[in-house]
Write a structure and sequence with these properties.
- 2 copies of one chain form a homodimer.
- With about 290 residues, the first copy, chain A, is α/β, with parallel strands linked by helices.
- Chain A folds into 2 domains: about 170 residues, FAD/NAD(P)-binding domain (3-Layer(bba) Sandwich); about 90 residues, FAD/NAD(P)-binding domain.
- Chain A contains 7 helices and 16 strands.
- In chain A, strands 1, 2, 3, 4, 5 and 16 form a 6-stranded mixed beta sheet that branches. A 5-stranded parallel beta sheet of chain A has the order 6-13-7-8-9.
- In chain A, helix 1 runs parallel beside helix 7.
- The N and C termini of chain A lie close together (about 10 Å).
- At the A-B interface, helix 1, helix 3 and helix 7 of A face helix 1, helix 3 and helix 7 of B.
């Protein structure tokens, strides 16, 4: 049982991780060990105090260094589900289960919306995790939405198992060329099915019969990740202490709203870390 | 008429100043040109992302450099009063009047409480500003509370004018030794008087008859600075956009509450700057 699970290795997650680590908390930190892709791609950053005018690459490198200096380890797994167990949380990441007394969501903004039908059929033919669910589709026909080139190894894993893969990449060019993989360029309009996924309807009007649909995205919409989480439009609603409506669950950074800024994320991560310290001190460890 | 007046050169003020400057706003920035004394005195800072493990001196030096690189000028004057004029603010700093459409309070926490009677007699014998009010006490007897050694030049200025000065320094040793200055070590218990200051009552029980009382502190309690400002205990109450109860007035950093952390201050300064940009865009410049 960890004291805290932090989801996301952007500036908000880092800020919280530094503070919690220095305060001796036992934490698990999920996300890309390369840290924020959004920071990495920022051309110039001039309004983050203390570092002067820097490129996103430079600042991200400093972020990684500082985490390494404090011996902060990143678990490069994607958390696909969080369950509120009342006095603690259960987290599912690449088929492994983790337990933590508190959770910090610092997942960034989910740029892509979910597809119509996707949330209703999640767990019934819709999956976010190739490693977790790929085996169920051995010899079957599946569709895969691939949000970024870095998930192509997961597509390849799925193509090893399924007999046929309809692939919808969100980027160009796509690096996958295999006999059983068919590239679909028409956009996804709906995930179809009543008790289970039966087909995908495309923008062209065509319907592709499939046994399953994998959505490989950089982030999962917060309400899908943790059912019951209160949102404010596309953002997680928090109070001034970064607490969400679920006791023990906090949020910081872009996922809580604008401005989408490094300074704001770092500040909220710091506030959340202190609120988590208070929460852990006040809440008995019942397990 | 400035777009914004920022009060305070700590991390919150700097963060806001960088963002507003980069967005082309016309701002005036009040505070010590040495920046935060609190940061300067921090032995080690390890949880501010992007700078590694640093001393407060090192980080403050980087803050000063970054402000200089953006050509941000600090007006090293103490703002002693802000008046809400409805569509703009009037600020009094060392006897000069400034006007600004919006105000950011990033004044830090006022460590010292006000003395009983001080607020009631402000402007009626109690003054926060030697330059502004010293002349009124030529040849008279005054008491001076000196909060830090850096205000000793103001004490000397007052001693040039007054015939007699009772000096209560908040620190040791005190660098002032003059014939007409008497060092008082007993603590101040009350500022006495009904229509005007008549005396100071000390912890020893003694009453010192005086014509005026100067309080030279690093910061002025927010509600004294801007009457009508809503507080939450000793802190300025703000919403998630750092707006106070007074339209056009925002607050960020330690003055809004705990945690008293650089990351938190920097984050709030950034959020406040963006809220000010929105406010300026939405509010017509009526003057």
């Amino acid at each position: 049982m960890f004291d805290t699970a932090i989801i996301g290795t952007g500036p908000a997650g880092l800020s919280a991780a530094l503070t919690l680590k220095m305060r001796g908390k036992d934490l698990i930190w999920f996300g890309s060990d390369q840290f924020s892709g959004k920071v990495e791609k920022s051309e110039k950053i001039g309004n983050y105090p203390g570092v002067g005018m820097v490129t996103g690459q430079e600042l991200n490198e400093r972020f990684r260094q500082q985490a390494a200096e404090l011996d902060l380890k990143v678990t490069d797994r994607m958390v696909t589900n969080i369950t509120d167990m009342g006095s603690y949380f259960m987290l599912l990441a690449d088929n492994e289960v983790y337990e933590a007394r508190s959770v910090l969501l610092s997942t960034g903004v989910v740029a892509s919306k979910t597809f119509p039908g996707e949330e209703a059929l999640l767990g019934r033919g819709v999956s976010y995790c190739a490693t977790c669910d790929g085996m169920f589709y051995k010899g079957k026909t599946i569709a895969v939405f691939c949000g970024a080139a870095r998930y192509e190894h997961e597509v390849n894993y799925l193509a090893d198992l399924a007999s046929k893969v309809y692939l919808m990449p969100a980027y160009r060019p796509c690096g996958i060329s295999r006999d059983n993989v068919e590239l679909i360029t028409s956009p996804i309009k709906e995930v179809m099915g009543t008790t289970r996924v039966t087909a995908l309807r495309l923008g062209s009007g065509e319907e592709l019969p499939v046994d399953g649909f994998f959505c490989l995205r950089g982030a999962i919409a917060p309400a899908t990740l943790l059912p019951g989480l209160k949102l404010n439009g596309p953002h997680i609603e928090t109070d001034r202490q970064q607490a969400t409506n679920i006791a023990g669950c906090f949020a910081a950074g872009d996922c809580t709203g604008t401005p989408y800024q490094i300074a704001k994320a770092v500040g909220e991560g710091n506030i959340a870390a202190h609120a988590i310290l208070d929460y852990l001190a006040e809440t008995p460890d019942t397990k």
